[in-house]
């Protein structure tokens, strides 16, 4: 078949490689650079992750086997252990916070333990059985930890009431709390080994851009091209005056070409709901920093607008090649002026010195209770016309790199 793929992020590149050996594949990218949210650039020969800091790992053996078929793990990657920290009450403590209660004030610890003991007596709910994200956090960590840490930190990221955020996105993103483990970890001072990325792999050179550059090999990618219209001629889809058998859309579902939206409307899908799906952008300040061994530093405190620092300079020494210091990315939710970010950086540890900055309008997808059902309805309708949705913004799922690859795998089975 001849297959069009719209979007050249990890999802588009992955499905492109999965299908390219048996089909004729053409990727369309509206920007001049490929890579979506994981693309990087060098500034003064230091590596700037323009949107966060992307690493790779997976618990899915199929994904691991496929990924390492494109890379030499031992010679091209470094393996690192996650060393995340939290700024809390003017101190830097370990992550996740519930494993480091022994570092908090005595009265606060007593209140938290009392609340956890009460929660332990209540029926245990699966994550998706909670009404919303706020309910999940309170019901698992207690009111005190929610007010001190989870609420302020997540409000910074999502910039919305947490009781409007659905739980489906959560799977695999947070450790599920267990009172026995919390008490045990605080006694024996255990590290957190159950996180999705408690250890991870990272390219020795050029970070996630190295992954993009390898995965684009042998793919026909047309950049600077926006797909505004998709029409049908018999059994064929017409895109940019070319005939295709299938279309895989990895772009923003809110911005589907008008003719595709018409297909959805004709079959009763609520397109107006899809068009108003919520997302948050991120502003990122690339900085030099003092030496440290941290990978991520989370900042729930209100003294700064920043919500985390990603110490990408600790992921690989080559990321700091143009500087005598380490480098990091300070992340803010939403659009924040450069001058404001610089002033906020002065409040943060590490004697930060700005190098560059970037604003990404869409980084985080925000789900509500209708989202997954609405996307599932849209998929069902579109697939009857040979059109498929894939990726973070097409499926409105909070995919990390490994989950994006896994979703591409699942979709590829429909083309065998």
Walk me through this protein's architecture.
The protein is an alpha/beta fold and 416 residues long. Among the domains are: 2-37 and 201-277 and 366-415, FAD/NAD(P)-binding domain (3-Layer(bba) Sandwich), CATH 3.50.50; 97-191, no CATH class. The protein has 14 helices and 19 strands. The chain has helices spanning 10-20, 61-68, 73-76, 106-120, 133-141, 143-158, 179-188, 207-215, 258-266, 271-275, 338-345, 371-383, 392-395, 401-412, and strands at 2-6, 24-28, 40-43, 46-49, 77-81, 84-88, 91-94, 199-203, 220-222, 231-233, 236-239, 242-244, 246-249, 278-289, 296-298, 308-310, 326-333, 353-366, 387-389. A hairpin with a 2-residue loop joins strand 10 and strand 11. Helix 1 runs parallel beside helix 14 (401-412). The longest helix is centred in the middle third of the chain and has 16 residues, at 143-158. The protein is globular and about 70 Å long. The mean pLDDT is 93.
Number of E-type strands? 19
Q: Strands of the largest sheet, in order across it? A: 7-6-15-16-17-14-18
Most strands sheet: 7 strands, mixed
Taking pLDDT < 50 over at least 5 consecutive residues as the criterion, the unreliable ranges are: none
Quickly describe the structure.
The chain has 416 residues and is of the alpha/beta class. Helices cover 32% and strands 23% of the residues.
Please outline the helices and strands.
Layout: E1 2-6, H1 10-20, E2 24-28, E3 40-43, E4 46-49, H2 61-68, H3 73-76, E5 77-81, E6 84-88, E7 91-94, H4 106-120, H5 133-141, H6 143-158, H7 179-188, E8 199-203, H8 207-215, E9 220-222, E10 231-233, E11 236-239, E12 242-244, E13 246-249, H9 258-266, H10 271-275, E14 278-289, E15 296-298, E16 308-310, E17 326-333, H11 338-345, E18 353-366, H12 371-383, E19 387-389, H13 392-395, H14 401-412
Parallel strand pairs: 1-2, 1-13, 2-9, 6-15, 13-19
Antiparallel strand pairs: 3-4, 5-8, 6-7, 10-11, 11-12, 14-17, 14-18, 15-16, 16-17
Helix pairs in contact: 1-14, 5-6
